[in-house]
Amino acid sequence: GAGVSQSPRYKVAKRGQDVALRCDPISGHVSLFWYQQALGQGPEFLTYFQNEAQLDKSGLPSDRFFAERPEGSVSTLKIQRTQQEDSAVYLCASSLGRRRGQGDGYTFGSGTRLTVV
Amino acid sequence: GIQVEQSPPDLILQEGANSTLRCNFSDSVNNLQWFHQNPWGQLINLFYIPSGTKQNGRLSATTVATERYSLLYISSSQTTDSGVYFCAVVGYNFNKFYFGSGTKLNVKP
């Protein structure tokens, strides 16, 4: 598609439930990022893929968070045993660039708003 | 990481007014983008501007990389300009965005 697509748009989970969030990047984009945005704050980095390789997962807040991109296109962010503090908007972004630190434009998806009750 | 500071945190304008938003960053960068987050949460890319000046309609942006700041100018503001404006940077030794805390703009009719 023309943009980065994320699904579902909204997700309500009961505390302790596992959730899976999907990101379809722009076709051909090598780099894919996940960000977490708490209410009233700027997005914060979670993890980065270059093709299927997860090169940086330093932002994942705990071992309950897991991300994958097995074929180098679609990515899934999984959160196990959700807690209330996981409530946030999860944003996915992709870019064409492959070199570390390369400057080019990033395109963000509309995000998934996760509410844990 | 890179520290990104945006000012002002909140801004209220009357429709038709002009404004300047500022972004300061703590290290050299090879990517700087301004985003507008609309009320539905979508981050819309406004400018990719690691240095220099760009204009797009009523919006323009200038980045002075040597002095580590960027400015976003909004002229003749409209109610549809309301939302949160984020500055985000990527450093030479990183491959991820560091975001500021945003400027929340409210344009009143």
Structural features, described:
The complex is a heterodimer of chains A (117) and B (109). Chain A contains no helices and 11 strands. By secondary structure, chain A is mostly beta strands. Chain A is globular, with a radius of gyration of 13 Å. Helix content of chain B is 0%, strand content 60%. Chain B contains no helices and 11 strands. Chain B has strands at 4-7, 10-14, 19-25, 29-37, 43-48, 52-56, 59-64, 69-74, 83-91, 98-99, 103-108. In chain B, the strands form 2 sheets. In chain B, strands 2, 4, 5, 9, 10 and 11 form a 6-stranded mixed beta sheet that branches. A 5-stranded antiparallel beta sheet of chain B has the order 1-3-8-7-6, with no helix packed on it. In chain B, a hairpin with a 4-residue loop joins strand 7 (59-64) and strand 8 (69-74). At the A-B interface, strand 4, strand 5, strand 9 and strand 10 of A face strand 4, strand 5, strand 9 and strand 10 of B.
Give the helix proportion of chain B (percent range).
Answer: under 10%
The Cα radius of gyration of chain A reads: 13 Å
With helices defined by DSSP (H or I, 4 residues minimum), what is the helix count of chain B? 0
The coarse silhouette of chain B is globular
Counted by DSSP, the helix tally of chain A is: 0
Catalogue the unreliable spans of chain B: none
Order of secondary-structure elements of chain B: EEEEEEEEEEE
